[in-house]
Amino acid sequence: MGFAEGSGKVEGSWETAGQVYFAVLTGNAALVEAPGEGKGRKYPRVAISPAGNTLMLWTEGMGWNRGGSLAWQLYDPDGRPLGQKGTAAGAPAWSFGAVVAKPEGSFSVIY
């Protein structure tokens, strides 16, 4: 699971039954699910830009002593996807990603 604070809100992310989710914890916002089929998704992280956009990052295909890939989706302040889901192969075994919002509104992904 992960937590982020920014733009006047707190969000939490978690994994349940192979799918990843996030929700605003400081209001009555709806639950947001990652796009596509949720199978083997783990380790979700979120970051919130100064404009209120959220980048959710997670892993796919990871397992015991097995690497996988990173995936991410950008959402507007209301939880609607912006653009397409992104992916990058090569996440090593026993790792996960981290995402940080930058002051100018972009994000950095670290793994």
Keywords:
0% helix, mainly beta, globular, 111 residues, 10 strands, four-stranded antiparallel beta sheet
Short description:
The chain has 111 residues and is mostly beta strands. It has strands at residues 2-6, 9-16, 19-24, 32-33, 41-48, 54-60, 68-75, 81-91, 98-101, 107-110.
Topology:
Blueprint: E1 2-6, E2 9-16, E3 19-24, E4 32-33, E5 41-48, E6 54-60, E7 68-75, E8 81-91, E9 98-101, E10 107-110
Gap between N and C termini: 16 Å
Q: What percentage of amino acids are in beta strands?
A: over 45%
SSE order, as H and E?
A: EEEEEEEEEE
Count, helices: 0
Describe this structure in words.
It is a single chain. This protein is mainly beta. The chain has one domain. 0% of the residues lie in helices and 57% in strands. The protein is built from no helices and ten strands. The protein has a four-stranded antiparallel beta sheet, with no helix packed on it. The protein has a four-stranded antiparallel beta sheet with strand order 5-6-7-8, with no helix packed on it. The chain starts with a strand and ends with a strand. The mean pLDDT is 94.
